[in-house]
């Protein structure tokens, strides 16, 4: 068993020059990778990647900072895309009060609408939450039938416990940063069978490549850090986190 990258954006124009190489790296080194949409166009690009490569899967949805223009028609199109056989979840959806403080109510409305959509199409969700942990958890708790991944989990262990029955927690490059003390503590306490690994490529590049463009194959550095924090073998981290990813995405 190999690692999986449960969250990346390989459709980004930062891979325009060498996307085929990135895809070869994934094919040669990972079990699979999941490309995540953040608006309608990136959702379509995610499906194109998944259509062309058996090791790629797609997630479709509208990110909280891209909700301008979200309407019935767009939602219908998303719902149609969600029916594609390689679409494994709805996302990334959620709340972001860091970049957008003024539209909290609009963000909540669109978040709930996409949770309803996930319920209709019977798929899990990929959650983005930034500076909004409390409101995000409150809304997720309104939908106890929905399962998913909280991507790049920013909260505490205590917050994680509140939704741990339904959610996995995505750990990315931030865990390798020097100032990640709070996250290290959360990851040390959250059981391994609730963790999945992600790069969020091209963003959040782990040490020792911090500052450069990220690659999905860098999941290895994240897995090694988790093994170190939890004092378990690298192989166990690989096996359990990949099984977790397969389970939640239905792969
Ligand atoms: Zn992302």
UniProtKB/TrEMBL annotation:
Keyword Ribonucleoprotein: no
Residues annotated as transmembrane: none
One protein family per Pfam: TatD_DNase
Listed InterPro entries: DNase_TatD-rel_CS, Metal_Hydrolase, TatD-like, TatD/YcfH-like
PROSITE patterns tied to this protein: TATD_3 (PS01091)
Keyword terms: Exonuclease, Hydrolase, Metal-binding, Nuclease
Source organism superkingdom: Bacteria
Recorded GO MF terms: exonuclease activity
PANTHER family: D-AMINOACYL-TRNA DEACYLASE (PTHR46124:SF2)
NCBIfam families: YchF/TatD family DNA exonuclease
Name by which UniProt lists this protein: YchF/TatD family DNA exonuclease
Organism name: Psychrilyobacter piezotolerans
């Amino acid at each position: 068993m190999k690692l999986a990258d449960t969250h990346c954006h390989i459709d980004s124009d930062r891979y325009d020059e060498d996307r085929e190489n990135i895809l070869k790296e994934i094919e040669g080194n990972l079990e699979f990778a999941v490309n995540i949409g953040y608006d309608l166009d990136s959702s379509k690009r995610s499906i194109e990647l998944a259509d062309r490569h058996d090791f790629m899967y797609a997630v479709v949805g509208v990110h909280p900072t891209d909700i301008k223009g979200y309407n019935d028609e767009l939602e219908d199109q998303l719902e149609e895309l969600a029916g594609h056989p390689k679409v494994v979840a709805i996302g990334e959806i959620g709340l972001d009060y860091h970049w957008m403080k003024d539209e909290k109510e609009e963000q909540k409305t669109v978040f709930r609408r996409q949770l309803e959509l996930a319920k209709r199409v019977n798929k899990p969700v990929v959650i983005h939450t930034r500076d909004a942990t409390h409101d995000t958890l409150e809304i997720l708790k309104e939908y106890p039938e929905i399962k998913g991944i909280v991507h790049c989990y920013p909260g505490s262990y205590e917050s994680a416990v509140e939704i741990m029955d339904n959610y996995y927690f995505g750990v990315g490059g931030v865990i390798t940063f020097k100032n990640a003390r709070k996250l290290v503590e959360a990851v040390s306490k959250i059981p391994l069978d609730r963790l999945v690994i992600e790069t969020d490529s091209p963003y959040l590049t782990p040490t020792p490549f911090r500052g450069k463009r990220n690659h999905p194959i860098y999941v290895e550095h994240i897995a090694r850090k988790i093994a170190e924090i939890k004092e378990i073998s690298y192989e166990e981290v690989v096996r359990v986190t990949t099984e977790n990813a397969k389970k939640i995405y239905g792969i």
